[in-house]
Amino acid sequence: MIHIELPGVLQELADQQSNVEVEGRTVREALDSLGRRHPMVLTRILTRGGQLRPHVNLFVGGRDIRQGLGLDTQLTDGDELLVVPSVAGG
């Protein structure tokens, strides 16, 4: 199982859950699994074209997936995928 930790802004779209367990061997597969249960959450993470939205950051093991293989980042049982919205301001 992969554990996806959702920020407060997405929890309301996931039945108030802060952590959702899904199956998947890659970040993309885990997000697809999440989207089957909570489609509105997925629309806030990925574009219609299936790409990571620019204002959303995903971390696996403390590493930003954009610094590696992106959505094709490999996952192993027990990994945590952390969803973090970008913060703008000054």
Which key terms come to mind for this protein?
90 residues, alpha+beta, Ubiquitin-like (UB roll), five-stranded mixed sheet, globular
The helicity comes to: 10-25%
Give the SSE order as H and E letters: EHEHHEEE
How far is the N terminus from the C terminus? 38 Å
In total, the number of strands is 5
The main β sheet shows up as:
5 strands, mixed
Helix/strand/pairing category: alpha+beta
What does it look like?
The chain has 90 residues and is of the alpha+beta class. It is built from 3 helices and 5 strands, in the order βαβααβββ. The protein has helices at 8-11, 27-37, 39-45, and strands at 2-5, 19-22, 56-60, 63-64, 80-85. Strands 2-1-5-3-4 form a 5-stranded mixed β-sheet, covered by helices on one side. A hairpin with a 2-residue loop joins strand 3 (56-60) and strand 4. Helix 2 (27-37) packs across helix 3 (39-45). The radius of gyration is 12 Å and the shape is globular.
